[in-house]
Amino acid sequence: MKMDEHYMLMVQTHWDTIVRTYLDFEEKKPVILFDIQKQKIYAYPYQNFKEDLSALSQKKLEKQYREAIKKRQIVTFVLDSKERVFISCNFAIDDSKA
Q1: Are the C-beta atoms of residues 22 and 32 closer than 8 Å to each other?
Q2: Which one of 12, 26, 74, 76 is separated from 66 by 20 to 30 angstroms, measured CA to CA?
Q3: What digits encode the pLDDT tens for the residues 45-58?
Q4: What are phi and psi of 33, to 5 degrees?
Q5: Does residue 39 register a pLDDT over 90?
């Protein structure tokens, strides 16, 4: 699913923190979760995060994650509990801003 503009802007607003969080845990190959309501950014080890997903979502994440690693991107999930939205997108890491 493609991330809509509203969520893209939210990620963009918090991008520096997302990158710092990712780089702090980079050796664990994290997946980032941005919780809109809590305004918190979490880094989860890929395998642990994947295990909490349905079988279909696990397959999608595997493909997305492999692509992200090849292109030095961050797999970023956005959780909006209020609107019942849970979406993800890959974003390129710009080391010059970290």
Answers
A1: yes
A2: 12
A3: 999 999 999 999 99
A4: -125, 125
A5: yes
